[in-house]
Amino acid sequence: MDINNRKNTDYLKIAKEAVFVESSKLSCLDQVVQGYDFNQGIDWQKLMESYSNIGFQATHLGVSIKEINAMLNERLKPVNVDPNVDEFFKYPPARRRMALTLFLGIFRYILEHNLVDCVVTSAGGVEEDLIKCICPTYLGSFKMSGHWLRSNGVNRAGNLLIPNENYCLFEEWLMPILDVCLVEQKQKGIRWTPSKLIHRLGKEINDKSSICYWAWRNNIPIFCPALTDGSLGDMLYFHSMKNQPEGLIIDIVEVKSFKSGVIILGGGCVKHHINNANLMRNGSDYTVYINTGQEFDGSDSGAEPDEAVSWGKVKIDAKAVKVNSDATLVFPLIVAKTFARIVEERKML
């Protein structure tokens, strides 16, 4: 054998050894990747159940559905309330073991059917819910000219169009309510919090299409860590300036729960607020993130659940999952297999 043939043989051996590495029998090799077979017809329940075995973000979607159902099942368990502890949530007999937190209050349906114990949202989540009861928001395009919209008094949020008049009408509705709140603060000594104020606004809006309305009806507190960050904050400022030196005072509150499950759609201030609150109880028991944030820039919004574990914001033994997706795409599917499932089961009782 000449030297060239010997070299070729050596290269071939190296290549074969690299490619044909013997596989070990590992415990992690137990879940087979398998998609839905449409030859069996369209069965929406089985289609959604198949997501867990598809791989990539589809599997994370399937895991998130299991986690949320685990939260809901935990919520139905009986709980013994310590009579010496002042309750924030009024636990009915045999239910509400945990404080299930929902970011953005995305569906009125969930609150209408009393499926969560509290909501954490941004100021925009509150004000846009109320504004849409007064005047509509319109569908536009992501590519519309900001200059043209500005010159016509229209604000764009993504592909949603909000006429400036909406905020003017919102101010006309809100200011008299704030006047009454200020009177109650002075005469009755009420110390307003974001959740108390939102509770009052839900009562005053008196519109069944509103998330805040159903939160008020079902006594579900809505927490807003940055209430002043938005149009609502502007109006609170204007009201305060008008009523100096004794303007409306809004304080911060805390809450403690037996079990904690969190569903966080998006990131930012609210995501950190929810996680940081859970740090005070050594972490959340159930955790689902749904966002498109990436962790390479060190942002809190893009952080994976395991980073929160390192801080004690998510429990070490929690089966936390992050779905890397736009929440508007996947959350309705998750609701169909979790919250809506509970509602349909109740109807059959």
TrEMBL record:
EC numbers, comma separated: 2.5.1.46
Main EC class the enzyme belongs to: transferase
Keywords (alphabetical) are: Hypusine biosynthesis, NAD, Transferase
> What does the record give as cofactor?
NAD(+)
Q: In which pathway does it act?
A: Protein modification; eIF5A hypusination
The cellular component terms of Gene Ontology attached to this UniProt record, alphabetical and capped at eight, are: cytoplasm
Q: Which InterPro entries does the annotation name?
A: Deoxyhypusine_synthase, Deoxyhypusine_synthase_sf, DHS-like_NAD/FAD-binding_dom
What GO molecular-function term can you cite, just one? deoxyhypusine synthase activity
Q: Which reaction does it catalyse?
A: [eIF5A protein]-L-lysine + spermidine = [eIF5A protein]-deoxyhypusine + propane-1,3-diamine
* One Pfam family recorded for the sequence: DS
Provide the family line.
Belongs to the deoxyhypusine synthase family.
Which PANTHER family does this one have? DEOXYHYPUSINE SYNTHASE
Q: What is this protein called?
A: deoxyhypusine synthase
Originating species: Meloidogyne graminicola
Classification from the root reads: Eukaryota, Metazoa, Ecdysozoa, Nematoda, Chromadorea
